[in-house]
Amino acid sequence: MTAAAGGADARVALSVSGLRKRYAGRAVVDGLSFSVPSGIVFAILGPNGAGKTTTVEILEGYRRRDEGEVRVLGLDPARAGAELRGRVGLMLQGGGIYPQARPREILRLYARFYRDPQDPDALLEAVGLEDVAATRYKVLSGGQKQRLGLALALLGRPELAILDEPTAGMDPAAKAATRELISGLRDAGTTVLLTTHELADVERMADRIAIMDRGRIVADGSAAELAAGAAPRLRFRLDRALDPGDRSGLAADLGGGSLRDDGAPGGYLVDDLDSSPALLATLAGWCAARGLLIAELRTTGATLEERYLALTGNRALDD
Amino acid sequence: MTEPQGTLPASSAAMATDPGMPRPGNAAPALGSTLAQLGMELRLTARRGENLFVIVVLPLILLVFFSLVPALTPNTARPIDFLLPGILALAVISTSLVNLSIATAFERSYGVLKRLGGSPLPRAGLIAAKIGAVLVVEILQVALLVTVAVGLFGWRPGVEWSPVVAGAAFVLGTLAFAGLGLLMAGTLRAEGTLAAANALFLILLLLGGVVLPVDHLPGFLADLARVLPASALSDAYRIGLGSATGDALPSLLVLAAWGVVSSLFTTRLFRWE
Q1: A85, B37: Cβ pair inside 8 Å?
Q2: Which residues face A32 on adjacent strands?
Q3: CA atoms of A241 and A233, how far apart (whole Å)
Q4: How far apart are CA B187 and CA B108, in angstroms?
Q5: How close B110 gets to chain A, by Cα (Å)?
Q6: Which chain B residues in 38-57 lie under 8 Å from chain A, judged by CB atoms?
Q7: Mean pLDDT, to the nearest integer, of A139-158?
Q8: Distance CA B208, CA B233 (A)
Q9: Cβ <8 Å between B120 and A82
Q10: CB contact at 8 A, A163 and A178
Q11: Would you call B124 an interface residue with chain A, using a CB distance cutoff of 8 Å?
C-alpha cells in the first residue's frame, strides 16, 4: 500500500500519507496513510471515536490537517475550490438540510449547482423517497433523512463519493437497498470512500477495508484477506477455571500470546499464535502437570468480526 | 490492493481510466448557482411565519399606530414625514439584521451551511444569495410601507428629496446591518443569536430615531444613539426623502464604517459550523 507520489495519477482517486490531526493536544488522527484506487468501494471501519469522521472531514476540505499529505482526485482539498467540490459527492453525518425544505425541492436546488446533474425525480425514486418528495425534511424519519443525504451525494454524478456512516439510522430494508445502491455506484465507475462501524456494511459493499482504531489504520485488505490474515487461534476449555497466577504462567509457556476468557468458565482463547503441533503438546503437558483436563480443544481461523474485535482492542461494536 | 483495474465496466472508461486527460468538473457556473440559492432563500423566508411578522406586520403596525397617535413624534409638519423614514430604517433592521441573523444562525446549527459549503456553490455565492434575498425582501417592504403611507396618510416626498441619498442609505444600511447580522450568526450559538437579535431590535427601535427623535433622549443616550447605525440610517432616510434638510454625508459615512468594520470581523470570525 503506497501513497501516490504526485497528483497526476488518475488511477488513484485518493491518497493520504502521514496524516495527523490533534485536538487540544490529543492526536485524533495519528499518522494515517492509505490510498484508494479509482473505481472501488473503500471502507474505513472502526469503533466510534477512532477518528473516521475527522479523517473524512479533512478529505472533504472541512478541516485542516496538522501534518501529512492528502490528495483527492489529484488535488489538495485544503486548497481546492468549487471545481473539486463539483467532482466529489458528500454525505455528511447529521444531514445539514433546511428543516422546512422538502426532498424534491432540495434536490432541485442542489441540481442547479451542477452542470450535468442527475434527474432529481429519478434519484428520489432510486433512494425510495418518491412518496415523501413533498414532505418537510424535519418530519422525515431518520432513515429517510439518511437516504436524502445519500441522494444529495450522488446528484452531481461524482467521480468520488465520500459517505460518512451511510447506513446509520436505517431500518434493515433501507440498509439493504442502500448497500445495493452503493455497490451499483462502483459498477458505474464511481470511487466510493465510506466510513462505518458496521461489519455487515463492509462485508457486503467494500472491495477494500481499512480498520481504523485510535487514529491509525491497524489492518487493511479485502474482507477475506483480513479474516485470513489473522493467525489461527486456539480455543480450549478446561474442566475448571484457572487462577490468575496459573493463567499468566500458561500464557508465558505458550509463547506470550494473550489468554482471553471465552464463553463458559474454564474456556480460553489465544490470539495470534501458530497452532502448531508443538504448541498443542505444550498446552497438553502443562495441563497434565497440573491435573487439568482439556474438555474441548479447537484450532480455528478468525472471522472478520473476531479480527476486528481483536484489532480494536475488543471494544464493543455499536448496534 | 487486490481489485483488478481492468474490471471497470466500459461505461466508466471515459471518466476513470485516462491519466493524461484533465477531467472537466461538474460544477455549474457560480452565477446560476447563486441565483438558485437566492430563490431558495426567498422561499424559505416566505415559509417562516414568525419572520414575516417581524419584517412585514410589525413595521406596518408601528407606522399606522404612531401616525394615528402622534404621542412621540415632532419636528415635522405631519407625523408621517417623521415616521416613514424611521419605519423604513426599521424595515432594513428587521430584514438584514434580525431575520438574516436568526435564519443563518439556525442554518449553521443544523449543519446547512456546512452541507452547502461542501457543494459546488461558492461560499461567496451563498453570502451573495443571502444579501440578494435581503435586498429583494426590503424592496417589497419599501413598496408596501410607501404605498400605505401614500394611501392612508397622503404622504409625498419633501421638495428637496434625493433619490441618490435615499438609495445610498438603503444600500449602505443593508450592508451595515447584514454585516452585523452575519457576525452574530457566525460567532454566537443559534439561541444566543436569537436573543441578541431581538434585544438589538428593541434597542435600535428605541434609540435609533425610528419612532422617537434622538433629540428627545437624555444626553448620554442621545450621544450613544448618534454613533449607532440605526439613527444614521433613519437620519439619512429623512434627508433623502426630504423630511429634514442637511448634509447626509456624515450619516452615510457612519453607515459605511459600520459596514466595513462588521464585514471585516465577519470575514475573520465567521464559523461555518
Answers
A1: no
A2: A19
A3: 19
A4: 10
A5: 6
A6: 39-40, 43-44, 47-48
A7: 94
A8: 8
A9: yes
A10: no
A11: no
- pLDDT tens-digit series, residues B93-148: 999 999 999 999 999 999 999 999 999 999 999 999 999 999 999 999 999 999 99
Using CA coordinates, name the residue in chain B closest to A102: B44
- Cβ-Cβ pairs closer than 8 A, A with B, add up to 147
Using a CB-CB cut-off of 8 Å, the residues of chain B touching A191 are: 16
| Nearest-by-Cβ selection for A85 from B27, B39, B40 | B27
Residues of A in contact with B40 (CB under 8 A): 98, 101, 105, 109
Residue B179 identity (one-letter amino acid): G
| Coil vs helix vs strand at A154 | helix
Main-chain phi, psi angles of A241, to 5 degrees:
-75, 150
Candidates A44, A56, A27, A45; CA nearest to A318 is A45
Strand, coil or helix: A170: coil
Q: Write the DSSP assignment of A95-149 as a string of letters.
A: ----TT--HHHHHHHHHTTBSSPPPHHHHHHHTT-GGGTTS-GGGS-HHHHHHHH
- Distance between A207 CA and the closest CA of chain B, angstroms: 7
For residue A313, the one-letter residue type is: G
Residues ≥6 apart with Cβ < 8 Å to B49: none
**Chain-centroid distance, C-alpha B272:** 19
Select from B8, B26, B48 the Cβ nearest to the Cβ of A114.
B26
Tell me the pLDDT tens digit for each residue of A174-184: 899 899 999 88
For the residues of B203-224, what is the DSSP string, one character each?
A: HHHHHTTSSS-GGGS-HHHHHH
Separation between Cα atoms, residue B88 and residue B105, nearest integer Å: 25
**pTM: predicted TM-score of the whole model, two decimal places:** 0.81
8 A C-beta contact, residue A102 and residue A144: no
Tell me the residues of chain B between 244 and 273 that have a Cβ less than 8 Å away from chain A: 273
> What ipTM was predicted for this assembly?
0.86
